Every structure is written in C-alpha cells, then in structure tokens.
Amino acid sequence: MKIEVVYKGCGEELQNFIFEYCETTTLADLLNELGLNPLDCIDKENNLCHYTRGENVYLAVKYIVKDGIVKWIVPVEQCTIEEYLNQFNLTSIIWYKPDGVGACGIESFWSFLITVINGAYTTMDFIVTMVDSFNLGKSVISYISKKFLHIPDGVFPPVDNEYVNQFICEKKVWSIDVFMYEFDLDDKEFARFLLYINGYIYDELTNLYFFSNELHMRNKRKYNEALQEYSNSLNGTLG
User: Fold this and answer.
1) What sign does the dihedral 150-152-157-161 (CA atoms) show?
2) What are the tens digits of pLDDT across the range 74-108?
3) Among 178, 156, 155, which Cα is nearest to 167's?
4) Strands, E assignment, the chain
5) Which residues are paired to 17 by β-bridges?
6) Is 127 buried (19+), middle (13-18) or exposed (0-12) by CB count in 10 A?
7) pTM
8) Among 103, 154, 180, 209, whose CB has the most other CB atoms within 10 angstroms?
9) Do 83 and 64 form a contact (C-beta atoms < 8 A)?
C-alpha cells in the first residue's frame, strides 16, 4: 500500500513523499523513514499530541478505536498507519513542524468533576447542576481515575477532556449502547452526562442521541464558565 505524505518545516518548502507501508507499519516507522524527530511533527487535523515522561517528550495519537474500544494517547510506536488513516478518514498525511511543543492537556476538568461528585464544591453552576441531574456517583470517580487520570498505574499521562470531547463529537449520532461499549463504560448515567454536555439530544422515537450545534455551543460556554469559576476558587484558596 502507498500513501502520500506532505511535510513542511518552519520556513521550508513543502516536501512530498510517497510512502509504502503494510498493515503492521507504524507511525514511528514513518518518522524514522523520513528522518523526522517527534518534536518536529504535528498534524493539520489536530489529531496528534505530545506528552512528557520525565525530561523526554513523545508523540502520540490522541485516540484510536481498537477492537471496538477507544484507546487514549496512543504512542506512535503502537499505532499503525492503517489505524491512523481509518480513524480519521484520511487519504494523505499532512504534517508540519510546530512553532512550539505543547504536552498533553491538563486534567483540570476531571479533577473538578471528582470534587463536585465528592460534594466538596457546591457552587450552583452548570457542572454541579448536571452532576445532580444525572445523579453521578462514586463509580464515575473510579472510572475517571482509571481511564482518564491513569491512577494508580500512571503508565500514560492524563487524558485532556478536550480529547474526549473531540472524539465524541466526531459522530453526529450516537447509540447509547455503542457509546458505552466504545468507552468501556458501565455507568449509563455518566454516558448520558458526557453526551449531553457535548450537545447531544435524546430522541425517543429512534432511541438515539443527535448532535445539536446550538446546544453544543451553549453548553460549551456554560462548561467553560464553570471551570473558570472553579479555577478562580482554587486560586483564591491558595492565595
């Protein structure tokens, strides 16, 4: 199999390559073939991220569905080119050298959510109201800790909630059963919570959740306001 690869360094002209690969060829193999440093790569579609381990910075794919279940922050050494292309419906690979490297995003939202569920933050904002509405309990804390914060194993860095939101919003329609299977999730109320805050509306006739851009934008604004208020409360406490 062959794929067109386009790469642009800072201040450099576009470089075009035709890369031959097989079903086991990884993105790391592509980097090695082209002589590229992981620090020098980011993708046009914003599906890659960098993460740190000690003093080292690594390149990963934000998420890949393997065997029907989403895997978060998949190192390029563990992601095949075929998986990468299929996950994001790509017909070519367009990478460029970033101006700067940012590591995987902070886990502040998950910490915020855990704090709310534990009853340690009760300011009546959007997230607090949603936690009460969906009656989220201790099982959600266990799931978040294991799947998103990677506690206690710490094998991978925490998963930025924006990566989770990006994955969810790739589909305009979700079945709750498919959603729970792909997320390896048993708590239906937490599944409904994640769908709702990302702008999905349940349709009783079809038993499906449909994306609403209006709800998405409204919830995103409320969600960001709540997170900012929580952050301000922490800064006030620390101050």
Assistant:
1) positive
2) 999 999 999 999 999 999 999 998 876 555 555 57
3) 178
4) 2-8, 15-20, 42-43, 48-53, 56-66, 69-75, 92-96, 173-174, 200-203, 208-211
5) 5
6) buried
7) 0.91
8) 209
9) yes
